[in-house]
Amino acid sequence: MGCCSGRCTLIFLCTIQLIMALERQVFDFLGYQWVPILSNFFHIIIVILGLFGTIQYRPRYIVVYAVWTALWVAWNVFLICFYLDVGGLTKESDLLTFNISAHHSWWSEHGPGCVRREMTQPGVHTANSQSYVSVMGCLLDYQYIEVLHSGTQILIALLGFVYACYVVSAITEEEDSFDFIGGFDPFPLYHVNEKPSHLLLKPMVHKST
What we know:
This protein is mostly helical. The protein is 57% helix and 6% strand. Helix 1 packs antiparallel against helix 5, helix 2 packs antiparallel against helix 3 and helix 3 runs antiparallel to helix 5.
């Protein structure tokens, strides 16, 4: 299977997925989103596994990658529903931080055009007084940025799934055809006798007593 085929396309898609996953991991770390951090970590490992399987013609690794892409699509659909408050989910909950902190998406305070202001409660000026953050002027709300991220991940994952199935099918067909012509046969049809021909034709000589 040449490089100008689905195999090269899958290598390209895996590389794009790896770059996008690393970018997403950085911003999830900045926002202390622990559940997405773990999912991104597993995603990076599986994408590297799929990339290795594609380069080294290992269909089993590519099958693992294909199964994971289906799960990855489902996870990103959940994130879209979470940030759009669909099905009883709400983006204001602490679900993505295991309910151990009140952190939200990094983009909620650092989106394009956002102006972040930290303000203290009026009339309280002690060292322990709590402050709250006011964000204004955002060109795009953070939930839509997260939805765009997830939508792009879904698109690339679906393409990766299709090409992974194609590459596995192509590799399997090549292996079957190679085995059919005797490529893996330890006893080929036209094997050569190990004994030299002149020894086979040499007459038997008995010594007379």
